[in-house]
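Incident review: delayed structure delivery

Summary: a single-chain prediction request sat in the queue longer than the usual turnaround. Root cause was a stuck worker, restarted by the on-call engineer. No data loss occurred. The affected request and its eventual output are reproduced below so the record is complete for anyone auditing the incident later.

Affected input:
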Amino acid sequence: MHNRGGHLMDRSNSRVVDVVNLLATYPAERFSLSQIASRLGLSHGSAHRVLTTLTEAGYVSRHPRHKTFSLGLALVMIGQAALSRHRSIDAARHEMRLLAQDLKAQCTASAVLNDELILVAKEGTPQTHEGVSRIGERRAFIPPVGLAHVAWAPRPVRQAYLARLPQDMQPALAEHLLRALPLIRSRGYTIAANGPNQTPLRKALLIDIGARRDDTYWSSLQTAVSALTAPEIQAEDLEAVVDQGAIYISAPVFGPDGEVELELTLSGLQPDLDIARIKQSVRRLCAAAAAVTAESHGRCPQ
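Output delivered after worker restart:
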């Protein structure tokens, strides 16, 4: 009986988190009770109970006439408190805004949360059809996602990350990824070619708020990762990026303990960049990441 009650309590807590995550991912929108229940796979009764609790606490706001729900004012205080704790995010926003304006691209900041990569800040608009990223997006933290978070990590963390490679991945591509980690550390950034297999990977990675990662999800994701070419995993030669364009360029922001706190990423870059402009984008991004590291009193590990 105790285990069953604990299980029910866990599900109830999960529903609260899912509702807040949904509203936070779409902060400019309002949702009806039916829309929230449908998006999160909840019964109307469960959705109503969760929304009532959150509304009474001020975490959710209910429009009196339209009877729709959005983020409440009480979360402003919580958000400000969280930002004061994670100062690198505020510092990153300024640099990201300048990058997005100067390079005409989308710039995002992501952090590792458990086994997920979560997008915590965004500036600019992509110049390609890859789509606009949303703050709060979560992606499975598996190779080759989030390489800048892993390249400087301790050996056990790198090994655990690499253990998530698909079992049917070609050995040559797995070896390529192993070689990429010291290369990333030596040059200070990650970059991948925008080949034809990147779009299926992006679609496989994205998952709706509240949705569960089941066997079908993991199977499609492993298939998408296994289909990547070497330059799509990590470009050793920038000429490959010139030919296909860059799907992203990322650089790390380090915290006071020398661990990677954030990954700054340029995406949606213009597809016709020559090698000089690619190198310029790399320099600007690395300089911005270094500036955020310094402002946050971080240090690059030796």
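Verification: The beta strands are 31-32, 60-62, 68-71, 106-113, 116-123, 138-140, 190-193, 246-254, 260-267.
Action items: add queue-age alerting; document worker restart procedure.
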